[in-house]
Amino acid sequence: MTTALFVELQLHMRTKPAKPPWLKRRLPTGATYEKVRQLIEDGQLHTVCQEARCPNMWECFSRETATFLILGDHCTRNCRFCAVEHGPEGPPDTGEPVHVADAVHRMKLDYVVVTSVTRDDLADGGSGHFAATVQTIRKKNPHARIEVLIPDFQGDSAALDTILNAKPDVINHNMETVRRLYPEVRPQADYDRSLFVIRYLARSAQHVPIKSGLMLGLGETRSELMETLENLIDAGCRMLTMGQYLQPSPSHLDVARFVSPHEFDELRDQALGLGFTQVASGPFVRSSYHAVDMYHAATDAGTV
After folding, report:
1. How far apart are CA 114 and CA 288, in angstroms?
2. Exposed e or buried b for every residue in 78-90, given b needs 16+ CB within 10 A?
3. Could you tell me which of 81, 43, 47 has the C-alpha nearest to residue 65?
4. How many other CB atoms are there within 10 angstroms of residue 247's CB atom?
5. Tens-digit pLDDT profile for residues 107-143
6. What ranges do the domains of the chain cover?
7. Which one of 19, 88, 121, 260 is least enclosed by Cβ atoms within 10 Å?
């Protein structure tokens, strides 16, 4: 190794931010956590909690909640922030909607979040399978509220119509980051395409709350973040989550900085001032974290 390269590596290691104390937490486990984990395993199901190595998995499982991941566990895209495996996937499991609906029934869930890997290899992007899952859950669990967290379906309005026709109670599509960082963070996605998805959904079904989420700490500036929030408001998004990006493995993007809880509180207030009706903002917030609480808050406020 040359002296210059050694110095460069040393500087990189020295400038990498250390994980702050507010990101350390106890992991609640116990009988309820184990029951949920076993139900998921027995049902041969996937959860985004497990596949994406979510820091809230232990808490959510302990509260008998989970976000179901459909359409397999391998994604056709390779976003540099995401822990879900990249690679080829077989055809959708036609029995999966029933398996998910049965798990919802056994867990006695009143609120369900369903998401998926991105399936650019399928003609409809998997939207038909999404719709079948929503409809099957509702048939077996008529009182359950259903939130879907969808990919962009390559901006295909027919696929978006398929989702809308399934009548979920909340539709979420994550922007993830600011425009400038898309080529680095989401090289196979497109900022304007994601805005189109949100705008199309908001205009097509004005009675359905449209939600989106952002990761902070990837190198975005405050002005870039505010521009993204304004873009989301203009597109019709009214529910928002903001959380700290955490590097899932050494092969993923580094954390540029750790955002303090105080700054997350400031950003929540600014987002509400822009016109968002419900905002969850904090280091551990994720797209579906306490999703039921956000929905009920919106219901109580009369914004749903």
Report:
1. 9
2. ebebbbbeeeebe
3. 47
4. 15
5. 888 888 999 988 999 999 999 999 999 999 999 999 9
6. 27-301
7. 88
Question: What's the pLDDT at 52?
Answer: 44
Going from the C-alpha of 230 to that of each of 5, 174, 211, 220, 234, the distances in angstroms are: 42, 15, 14, 15, 6
CA dist 218 and 186 (Å) reads 12
The token duo for 95 is: 């029995």
Q: How far apart are CA 153 and CA 260, in angstroms?
A: 34
CATH of 27-301, one of 3.20.20.70, 3.30.450.20, 3.30.70.20, 3.10.350.10: 3.20.20.70
Beta pairing, strands 239-244 & 210-216: parallel
Which residue's structure tokens are 């798990």? 103
What is the DSSP code string of 82-97?
--SEES---S--TTHH
Token pair of 52, please? 């994406």
